[in-house]
Write a structure and sequence with these properties.
It contains seven helices and seven strands. By secondary structure, it is of the alpha/beta class. The protein has a single domain, classed as NAD(P)-binding Rossmann-like Domain (Rossmann fold), CATH 3.40.50.
Length: about 240
């Protein structure tokens, strides 16, 4: 069995997930990209392996754990999966609300709880949150905002439960150049057409995927050995306004 440290990235073939996989591979980890599709959605570096994962299925999560352990001892878990449905007061009575909470909150809890007992001492768990957890002015994001606020509460609880063996943090992701598929692309296109998105950002530009991946890599490193239970905002100053 390889002695190389193993990193697991859920949602690992999305735009952010694949960038995170690349950054961790460059840092020397043996990276497993886990995602819900039968094949990777985007090309992955040759050094990254693909594993299918449905975070809504306990059996699928157990299969992921077996796949991870067959490759070594996990040192890094990144929860980068997520779903965004455009929701309003009227539409939150539908299935979109339940799916959002199941995938974005319960899915993070399920994967983290399943892998936590197997993580090596000094390991880290990082989950992607969003500025939506902190601000209420994003139209159509009520369910998504609730799910990401839940992620941040879960992060604090897990950090206390798993300390000092494992560090647990979140990243508050701002407006990214490549938004989430589906409703995320729809909402961004409407805001971009009016220039509304860019006017929100004091730094004057949208985030690049490398901006997020770099912070994930930092949180996984020894340089972040005293950081746990917090959410680092990588939003260009949006939540500072």
């Amino acid at each position: 069995m390889s002695t190389q440290q193993v990193a697991v990235v859920t949602g690992g073939t999305g735009s952010l997930g694949s960038a995170i996989c690349g950054a961790l591979a460059e840092a020397g980890y043996r990276v497993l990209a886990a995602d819900v599709t039968d094949e990777p959605r985007t090309p992955l570096p040759d050094t990254v392996e693909y594993v299918r994962l449905d975070v809504a299925s306990v059996e699928s999560v157990r299969h992921l754990v077996a796949e991870v352990l067959s490759r070594g001892t996990p040192h890094v878990l990144v929860n980068a999966h997520g779903v965004l449905h455009e929701t309003t007061i009227e539409t939150m009575l539908g299935e979109e609300l339940e799916e959002t909470l199941v995938i974005n909150v319960a899915g993070v809890a399920r994967v983290s709880a399943a892998l936590a007992p197997h993580l090596a001492a000094g390991s880290s768990i990082t989950t992607l949150s969003s500025i939506a957890a902190r601000i209420g002015r994003l139209p159509g994001s009520a369910a998504y905002a609730a799910s990401k606020a839940g992620v941040e509460g879960l992060t604090r609880s897990l950090a206390c439960s798993l300390a000092p063996r494992v560090r647990v943090n979140a990243i508050g992701v701002g407006f990214v150049e490549t938004p989430m598929r589906g409703d995320g692309e729809l909402m961004r296109s409407r805001a971009t057409d009016t220039g509304a998105t860019l006017r929100e950002v004091p730094m004057g530009r949208l985030a690049r995927v490398g901006d997020i991946a770099g912070v994930v890599r930092f949180l996984a490193s020894d340089a972040a050995s005293y950081i746990t239970g917090t959410t680092i905002m990588v939003d260009g100053g949006v939540t500072a306004r």
